[in-house]
Amino acid sequence: MKNLLYFTDMFNEGWHTYYVYILTNQHKTVLYTGMTNNLAKRLYQHRENIREKSKTFVARYKCSHLLYYEEFTWVQEAIAREKEIKGWVRRKKLDLIKGSNPDLKFIEKLFRYQDV
Fold first, then answer.
1. Which residues on neighbouring strands pair with residue 69, listed in sequence order?
2. Which residues are CB-neighbours of 15 under 8 A, at least 6 positions away?
3. What SUPFAM superfamilies does the record tag this protein with (predicted)?
4. Domains, in order of start, for the chain
């Protein structure tokens, strides 16, 4: 039993959550797919890039609204999924989003970032 508990503790020590997400702009004309291990912080960073008029894709097209996200435990799975979605045409991305968000509502309020 002791060995099992040790193994479980070792396994949980490296436990993380990774997110693949899709952002859009106010008029929903652009879709941006990204990956992060802290979605709230990443959304904040995207908003700051827009505010500062940086030269990123998100800032240029003002993609600050979250439409969709998926959670992963393993970073390799998240990276593979991000690459997969980035290779899709717009229609396929919208079909994915509408599977869980049929009205294409902005859902970034689910993730609040507070810099402590």
1. 21
2. 73
3. GIY-YIG endonuclease
4. 16-110 (3.40.1440.10)
Q: Mean pLDDT over all residues of the chain?
A: 89
Per-residue pLDDT tens digits for 76-99: 999 999 999 999 999 999 999 999
- The pLDDT tens digits for 1-19 are 444 444 444 444 557 999 9
DSSP calls for 55-103: SSHHHHHT--EEEEEEEESSHHHHHHHHHHHHTS-HHHHHHHHHHH-TT
Which amino acid is residue 64, in one-letter code? Answer: S
Instruction: For residue 38, count CB atoms less than 10 angstroms from its CB and return exposed for 0-12, middle for 13-18, buried for 19 or more.
Output: middle
* Residue with token string 């993609």: 63
Q: How many CB atoms lie within 10 A of CB 46?
A: 26
pTM for the whole thing? Answer: 0.84
